[in-house]
């Protein structure tokens, strides 16, 4: 059982990735994101997830420095945006991200979306970044099973992580099974379905039974499902509350009831049908 914020999943290359982290999507660069990152690290978070398109890598870098925690104790993720995909442009985008974060390496670098006709070339750039020791792990985001199969066919190195939309309304069973077989760690974005699940009666009932909030129950379900999770918040108290999920365990019955809420319903774009 995952017992603390510093507990880790082991990726297929042996790198340890915290089960729980802070997402900073829509956190404004500058004071807002700097405070969110330093509050999270102060609260014991080790993992921070950003992306070039969030336009807050500078602030994340400052937050890391201000936290006073040694760099090697943290796990920092960023991602290459769609317009920069391709071999040379990805290498360039990566250097740009490093510069903004003011880091010598990242722990995880991801392809943000499976841009048709581009992601294989982009992956070759990620393999180079990995071999050069500038990213401790590489992976993808928003890849469906068919994207992964296509990528793996020509890849030298298998993705270590696939970060996708995942919550009780979108359980991603087929994808989870495939990733498990391939030893690709699944990671959840929008685990709380952007707040849309917080008044769900089934979740509320389970929460009451455990004397927890609905959000805490969902996040606990993620981790017990073997899915790394990175809820986003910029409010210090919410950041602390989100992480308060290590002192209870959901029963088999609780887990099954939550699994039963699946409706294959997305709040974000469909990876098979996006145009950005």
UniProtKB/TrEMBL annotation:
Signal peptide: none annotated. It comes from Metabacillus lacus. The record marks 79 as: Lowers pKa of active site Tyr. One of its GO terms (molecular function) is oxidoreductase activity, acting on the CH-OH group of donors, NAD or NADP as acceptor. Residues 21-262 form the NADP-dependent oxidoreductase domain. Belongs to the aldo/keto reductase family. Keywords: NADP, Oxidoreductase. This is Aldo/keto reductase. It comes from the Bacteria. Substrate binds at residue 112. It holds the Pfam family Aldo_ket_red. InterPro entries: AKR, AKR5G, Aldo/ket_reductase_CS, NAD(P)_OxRdtase_dom_sf, NADP_OxRdtase_dom. The active site is at 54 (proton donor).
């Amino acid at each position: 059982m995952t017992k603390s914020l510093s507990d880790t999943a082991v990726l297929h290359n042996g790198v340890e990735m915290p089960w729980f982290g802070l997402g900073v999507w829509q956190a404004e660069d500058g004071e807002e994101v700097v405070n969110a990152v330093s509050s999270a690290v102060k609260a014991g978070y080790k993992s921070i997830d950003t992306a070039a398109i969030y336009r807050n890598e500078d602030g994340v870098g400052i937050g890391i420095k201000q936290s006073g925690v040694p760099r090697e104790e943290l796990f920092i993720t960023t991602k290459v945006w769609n317009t920069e995909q391709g071999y040379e442009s990805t290498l360039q985008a990566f250097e740009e991200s490093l510069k903004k974060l003011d880091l010598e390496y990242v722990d995880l670098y991801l392809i943000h979306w499976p841009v048709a006709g581009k992601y294989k070339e982009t992956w070759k750039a990620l393999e180079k970044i990995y071999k050069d020791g500038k990213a401790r792990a590489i992976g993808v985001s928003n890849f469906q099973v068919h994207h992964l199969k296509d990528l793996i066919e020509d890849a030298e190195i298998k993705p270590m992580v696939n970060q996708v939309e995942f919550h009780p309304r979108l359980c991603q069973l087929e994808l989870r099974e495939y990733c498990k077989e391939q030893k690709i760690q699944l990671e959840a974005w929008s685990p709380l379905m952007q707040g849309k699940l917080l008044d769900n009666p089934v979740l509320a009932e389970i929460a009451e039974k455990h004397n927890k909030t609905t959000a805490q129950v969902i996040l606990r379900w993620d981790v017990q499902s073997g899915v790394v999770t990175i809820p986003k918040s910029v409010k210090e108290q919410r950041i602390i509350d989100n992480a308060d999920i290590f002192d209870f365990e959901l029963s088999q019955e609780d887990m099954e009831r939550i699994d039963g809420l699946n409706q294959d319903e997305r709040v974000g774009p469909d990876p098979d049908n996006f145009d950005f």
